[in-house]
Amino acid sequence: MRITCPICGERDRREFYYQGAAVALDRPEADAEPEAWVDYVHVRDNPCGMTRDLWYHEHCGSWVVVTRNTATHEVIETALASDIKEQGA
Amino acid sequence: MVELIAKTPFDGALPLEVGTVSASEVDTGVLTSVAPYKGKNKALSEALKGAHGMAAPAPNRATGKEGSRAIWFGREMVLLCGPEPDAKLGKHAALTDQSDAWAVARLEGENAAQVLARLTPIDLRPGVFKRGHTARTELQHMMASITRIGERSYQIMVFRAFAQTLAHDLKIAMQGVAARQPR
Amino acid sequence: MRIEGKGLIDRGQQINFQFDGHSYQGFGGDTLASALLANDIALMGRSFKYHRPRGVLSAGSEEPNALVTTGLGAAQEPNVRATTLELHEGLVTKSQNRWPSLGFDLMSLNDWAAPFLGAGFYYKTFMWPKALWEKLYEPVIRNAAGLGALSGKHNVETYEKAYAHCDLLVIGAGPAGLLAALTAARAGADVILAEEDTRTGGRLNAETLEVDGKPGAVWAEEITAELAQMDNVRIMTRTSVVGAYDQGTFGALEKVPHDVSMRLGAPRECFWRIVAKRAVLAAGAIERPVAFRNNDRPGIMTAGAVRAYLNRWRVATGRNVVVFGNTDEAHRTVADLQDAGVHVSALVDARHHAKCDLDVPFYAGAEVCDAGGGKRLESVTIRTAKGTENVQADCLAMSGGWNPTVNLTCHMGGRPTWDRDIAAFVPVDGAVPGLSTAGACQGDFSTHKCLEAGVAAAQGALDDLGLKRADVVAPAAEDGVYDIYPVYAVPGKGRAWLDFQNDVTVKDVKQAAVENFQSVEHMKRYTTQGMATDQGKNSNVAALAVLADATGRGIPETGTTTYRPPYTPVSIASLGAGAQCKGFAPERFTTSHKATQEKGAPFIEAGLWYRPSYFPKAGETHWRQSCDREVNMVRNAVGVCDVSTLGKIDVQGPDAGAFLDFVYTNAFSTLKVRRVRYGFMLREDGHVMDDGTTARLSEQHFVMTTTTAAAGQVMRHLEFVHQCLVPQMDVRFTSVTEQWAQFAVAGPQSRDLLNDLLDTPIDDESWPFMACGEVSIGGVKGRLFRISFSGEHAYEVAVPSRYGDSLFRTLMTKAEALGGGAYGMEALNVLRIEKGFITHAEIHGRVTAYDIGMGGMVSGKKDCIGKASAARPGMVEESRERMVGLKPVGEVKELIAGGHLFDKGAEAVSANDQGYITSVGFSPTLGHNIALGFLKDGPARHGEVVRMVEHLNGVETLCEVCHPVFFDAEGGRTRG
Predict the structure, then answer these.
(1) Residue ranges of the SoxA A3 domain (chain C) (predicted)?
(2) What is the ipTM of this complex?
(3) Is A9 in CB contact (< 8 Å) with chain B?
(4) Residue C614 φ/ψ region, left for φ over 0, alpha for ψ in the -120 to 50 degree band, beta for the rest
């Protein structure tokens, strides 16, 4: 498997650490309801098809949001998590 | 007064020469990680140019030359190799002395790329990984910085504590490549 | 029998080799199979289940029968295909699965019992009594069935792994592959041409066909020579591409030639991971045998193999050959044999309409229905409309047509489709992204069509790569029509073999259908069809044709089983290449490693680091003696310990303090410059992630320490929090773990020792507890932290790593002069347990700050990672298992980490579980064992006696619950 690090370019999957769903970017406010926190920390979809998840390129230190298809293994898009977060904020 | 005696990272494990490839220890001088603060990339590059005569390298590139080099070292980080960093750089970036943190080796020879191809998954084709290109990648199981510094020579950096393992891994790969040379 | 003619062997190079203890000669370019056949050896093995005599069936990597064991001693390698094993001087081989010998195999009694041993026999027979399965049935069955065996010794040979990258990977170097490679290479693409054979050319090496007016093999050699001259081409022979994976990654196994692999440090095999932007599969096709009664007699082989042995190796596979086929190739086989002077006694063509213009007894619309003989074919029975006829023969060349080698196109879930015209499965376009097919593997069975397809596939790849097409025209070559009359199994009584390697017959497949294993996947598992090391390369299609027939469906409806990697067998050693011995994990050595080794200290691994367990002194015979001494040394004098392995992270920037406030539970923005603070961080789920001290070197500069094993995880976490949660914060992280060699100097005399080497002495005023700052040692700039993990008056002193060895030796010598010395992990552990300090034994991922008695350290004034989750009701219940100290109070004094805690009188079952022990040490200070552990509502139960039960060692100990700090609870020693 190959993943394109937005900084380093296409690299072997072994250079990356897999975190989980990109939901992790959307941290609730400190005073959010417990349900919001439970959703954020524990509840995940298990899609057959498109998914967005977080990978860490250990070597350059970038957190990368990878949009990929769990059925075909196609990687559709990768972007720096910090870019997504800053643009969204 | 106590006198502390310095040791080099490889401490005798290099040089090595097998077939057409050699590996030797490099004293790169002072190593400083330079991590530009928010929005300071440009200012830092100019300060680097002013103080040390080279621009901050773009990702996957190295600037400067033997003895005074700036190697892209990861997200928001450059490694200044050689000169004592100018104090002005500190205005734009977090500076950290790393002179003792890395074991630095030079891998050189006709089949150097073939040796590296046994250790790292990156694309080393001459047209892709050119002189002045650098990569943060893995070398066997170690985090490494690999820079192509010449037609047939590469600079390899791993954590200092891995120096013995690097020498060992290089030797194994060098032997595998050398064995295939026509005799 | 070797015959005259050039072929592709080097008669000038005579090679001596052994098979089953006998010596033979072959030539350069021979495989073991061709050399054995040249020596008139037809019997090469025994079958898996029935121990039937078997000879070679094919001339390629699909070979099911001719498996041998090579090598001697530890290097013994079983199940090597004689058809691909290159002959080399001194090669030692032996046959397999026979006892006592290949010619006289007592196990062949199984063959007489065959009526009872069909598909499903084991499942039905050995069901009862259940207890006998493991003890009796399975061992007996396993002993009787099987292939070769490993030596059972440690493999000392070298295996290698390597990576390669290219624009275009061409898999297979037959006519299609060669021309695809040439087309792409001339256009300037970086090309890798991988070929499993020792030479390029594919079928051209086995046929007498011409290309471009020259013998095919000569043409192939010329193209190969041109490719070899080009810088952008890498030709990899002896390299089998075994798997297609995501994003253009391919796995390939390179067999290193024997003469090279004997050199110092040379590998035996190299496993390649090839990354290709585009790929062309030109893997060719594999010939189908025909199933008929006794079709497994040695001497019966595929017609293509007969031609290959004849044309490439100049070996006549018999003196009296019968050819049986269903395409024009059968006729070509006869012509080739006759040209070479080999007698052909019959040509049997299954096609009714076939005509023959050769001088040979010809049977159209006929079939071979039986074979006579034992260890060698003696006769075949030909059945025509008129009846049957026996013909003497010592070799039968048979062909049921060709199966395109679609395997790699199916590795990512693709399924091939049935092509009626060629009676075979063909690949589906786009089944593997970026991979196209060319030549026989997509059903182009004429040489010219293969050549054209090679050019076309390469041109398509060039378009995709954005490169300008090169002008290559397919040269003139044979362009016949593939006219096939499908024959899979000839009807009749007796056993007709489909899967030779797993001994699966037509009857077995029919039996599966009768017993309702009608899905092809069920049939496969019930009969073991295609499950041997050859993966049914030459038998799967015929087997499912039989199944289709038995179930009244068509072949397309029946479908195929799944083709999975690897295409050809891959040794585990090559997959694990680079990870043998020292390659398994890098060794991370501290700067004090050498000096520690010199002291005779045994090492333990901590993550990748190697740390000393203890430093034995003369006369100490047990580790406990050393450990006790080292603990006492620290409590009473001074000890030195390398703590460089702890993670050290530089945190700098205008928002450094605010950031640390967010990742730690307690505040760091309030920490004064030149001071150190202890902190721990939580995971977002509220459990403790790691702990350590952080020092503030200047307003915007902190140095965080992490535990040794969690350094990488913490760095990743900091980057996560920064990049994914608070990218607006201006803060930077850099690991400085390796920059500093850091040593703990602990004990009442620690300051005396330090003042003996610091350029400027320190005192309590300049360096109070939790102070830090820069110091100078012999002119070298270092850092000093007054922190303690032992509970003693202690420091950690750091110098740049180049001085680490020197400083450690100096510290050790000076400590010894003061009645102290170096201490290792065992003593460090006891010292910290005595003080109730936690490590990852306690913060193992399931405990909260509340559980370790530090709930108060979660600041109420600010948000931090994990705060919300840690505050959930279940996370702060008093009844949770919470940290306590434990000491033995009964007869038994032993405490064991991992032991569980129960109420004194309760039965030791999980329903009664009250908690567990995490750390144990013998405290020389207190004179007994002490432990840290977690106990339900522990802090409220101090003074209570509970029972530790450790089932593994059968130990039960009564212990008193106490405060986790066993020693100097007020902390006077640390501050004093």
Answers:
(1) 493-578
(2) 0.98
(3) yes
(4) beta
